[in-house]
Design the sequence.
């Protein structure tokens, strides 16, 4: 049988809550509901020697609503004898179950427990009843720029797009480029965004190949905006003439148009890609005829 005690709110302190943002409007609504119907579910606390008072394990939102808004001097609480690890797991389980955490707080919650208690992803998944894949996905979000993390917190960046970006492990500049392109695309899709991000990743892995003159020819970029040039097309660009023989020249020009096709594909321009592909194939046919 669970014993419920009335404890002075002055003798209770918050625990190491995973949630860093408390919605003031949501707290007001919670307080109104408690005022009308009572506190249906008591908070859970444990005695904490370091502070010589009770520490909240579960129910900090309820505690804040009762103490700060309703001005309760006492609150019903379930007192449990818990280790740090046990209290941490209960707190995480409650927050996840109630969906009180935004994705970034959720990621920090997983990461902190792994760091503090030396848990593996598999062990944490077993304790929380979550899949290892979800935990890994959330932790990857912490590799993103802080301003992009803020977009995720506020719901201005959908988690699907955020996950694609986090999976790629781009540097911070390319992360920002990706978000700007997503913002400027009036009809984005996850397929388009994944292709765009993967192209940036390839660029990053190859030492910014598309940011340097290709085979001695004109410079172009896979990033379309007002300050950067678009990839070339056969209708507006002559491929560079590089090589000591006709075969070398044709081979280099074919590679030039293949790279341009990849760049157009990355920014979601299939017809431009087809033009460049056709030019590359025509040069390959010419090369085969020599």
Sequence:
């Amino acid at each position: 049988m669970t014993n419920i005690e009335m404890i002075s709110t002055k003798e209770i302190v918050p625990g190491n809550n995973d949630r860093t943002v408390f919605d003031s409007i949501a707290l007001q609504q919670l307080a109104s509901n408690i005022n009308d119907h009572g506190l249906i579910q008591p908070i859970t606390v444990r005695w904490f020697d370091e502070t010589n008072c009770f520490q909240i394990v579960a129910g900090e939102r309820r505690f804040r609503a009762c103490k700060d808004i309703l001005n309760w001097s006492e609150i019903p609480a379930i007192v449990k004898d818990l280790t740090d690890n046990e209290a941490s797991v209960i707190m995480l389980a409650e927050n996840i179950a109630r969906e009180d955490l935004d994705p970034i707080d959720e990621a920090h919650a997983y990461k902190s427990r792994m760091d503090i208690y030396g848990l593996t992803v598999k062990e944490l998944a077993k304790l929380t009843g979550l899949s290892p894949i979800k935990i890994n996905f959330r932790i990857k979000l912490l590799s993103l720029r802080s301003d992009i993390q803020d977009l995720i917190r506020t719901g201005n960046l959908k988690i699907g797009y955020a996950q694609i970006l986090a999976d790629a492990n781009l540097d911070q500049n390319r992360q920002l480029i990706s978000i700007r392109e997503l913002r400027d695309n009036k009809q984005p899709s996850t397929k388009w965004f994944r292709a765009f991000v993967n192209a940036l990743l390839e660029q990053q892995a190859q030492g910014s190949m598309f940011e340097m003159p290709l085979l001695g020819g004109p410079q172009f970029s896979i990033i379309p905006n007002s300050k950067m040039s678009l990839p070339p097309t056969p209708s507006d660009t002559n491929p560079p003439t590089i090589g000591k023989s006709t075969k070398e020249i044709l081979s280099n020009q074919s590679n030039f148009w293949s790279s341009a096709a990849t760049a157009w594909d990355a920014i979601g321009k299939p017809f431009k890609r087809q033009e460049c592909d056709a030019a590359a194939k025509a040069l390959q046919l010419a090369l085969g005829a020599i």
Remarks:
- The longest helix spans residues 246-266.
- Confidence is low (pLDDT under 50) at residues 208-228.
- The chain has twelve helices and five strands.
